[in-house]
Amino acid sequence: MKIAVSGKGGVGKTTISAYFAKRFAKEGYQVYAVDADPDLSLGTVLGIENSDIANLKPIVDMRDVIAAKSGGGGSFYSLNPDVDDVLDEYAINLGNIKFFKMGAVKQGGSSCYCRENSFLNSLMNSLLLKKNDVVVLDMGAGIEHLTRGTSKGVDAIVVVTEPTVVSVQTAKVVSNLARELEIKSVKFVGNKIRRPEEKEFLLKQLPAADILGCVSYNDHMLDAALGIETTEGSAGFEEEMDQIFQNLVKDVQV
Amino acid sequence: MKIAVSGKGGVGKTTISAYFAKRFAKEGYQVYAVDADPDLSLGTVLGIENSDIANLKPIVDMRDVIAAKSGGGGSFYSLNPDVDDVLDEYAINLGNIKFFKMGAVKQGGSSCYCRENSFLNSLMNSLLLKKNDVVVLDMGAGIEHLTRGTSKGVDAIVVVTEPTVVSVQTAKVVSNLARELEIKSVKFVGNKIRRPEEKEFLLKQLPAADILGCVSYNDHMLDAALGIETTEGSAGFEEEMDQIFQNLVKDVQV
């Protein structure tokens, strides 16, 4: 199954993506976790050292290798990770998780990330997954990965939203664009809920049946954000995310 | 003066941009406020109706008009808002603020926003400003507007950051890219500060002399985010932002 995590900047896409990657891995799935945001952060949240992320070859560099293997005709062969080790060169292994980055940080004024997005889309579409393989794509903030069509071909898109007017507005635009890309399953996660009226606000704004669940704001996240290791207060987060995970698996039928 | 507001997704770029636009307008400047994020929100925060934003012609549509006026040679004439009314067709007027949007929301899979970014850059560079004119650009989340060079040519970039590891990481990448673009003034604003250790964290991570100031997290913002009108708790925000504004004006010498 291929899942893209999307939403406005700062809503918690990376936190949710990291949870999904770790959780699927814990459940015995082979996980391909991809940081599809040029502004890299999924690796950091998964616990990888910044220097290792910086040294990792980006997915886009695979293009020439795959073109050569495909006979150079520009078309893609189906990439079967079971028999093909080309992916391994571009991955950092964390148990059952293989971590990838879409692109590297470039020089100011040098170029856009269109080539990276386009190649990632082709790669995703040529990847042969087994029943127990899951791809988790942590998308860039906002809507451009959708207008670019990067996430075309995923089975599900999880749109994360805070309980704010502008964040919900983006969530709605993302969900419309996802439907235009014919993504079958478009689901929502409410994040950083501080007050009961915030949950009510989300329930009024979004179709209740498509909300996988809500995550409360908590100090555990604040400490984690400051780089302080703590387990205090994480029980609530784990419980809420467990429910969201169960609903995701049920809804999109992994 | 041309100011771009940048930073990781969700750090509060739009809130800070809207404050700057309104504040400069209040001080008697003519403000050109540009939403340079395809995931539009500056207009909403400035209080413009969604339908009016949706109906507004995006800046990128100016391209053909300007090309025709320039004699069609592909090069730009210097756009002088004093004698030239081409801008007015693309603006929503709010007192001393003229609001623009870089691009419109597109269809899923239709295209990137490279053309929009490239044209915005040309337009900014061809705009003749008077002493009392200020451009405030609310950039898209992350780093792509810098690798694309959209913000090349601004006088100052204000990098907004939350007190989190990943947000500060982005702020540093943004500031390096801004220097590669030879932007003279690169300043930071700490936002959503909840605890004293968070402010300390920022002071440890970023050069103190380049921090314009810090903004506390407050319930006023939460209510505003839910679309609830309130002035309660806004005094602290106004005070902190006033200090930041004073420092900005002093530092970049409007």
Automatic annotation (TrEMBL), chains A, B:
The keyword ATP-binding applies. GO terms for biological process: negative regulation of cell division. It comes from the Bacteria. InterPro entries: CobQ/CobB/MinD/ParA_Nub-bd_dom, CooC, P-loop_NTPase, ParA/MinD_ATPase. Residues 3-221 form the CobQ/CobB/MinD/ParA nucleotide binding domain. One of its GO terms (cellular component) is cytosol. Keywords: ATP-binding, Nucleotide-binding. This is Carbon monoxide dehydrogenase. The lineage of its organism: Bacteria, Bacillati, Bacillota, Clostridia, Eubacteriales.
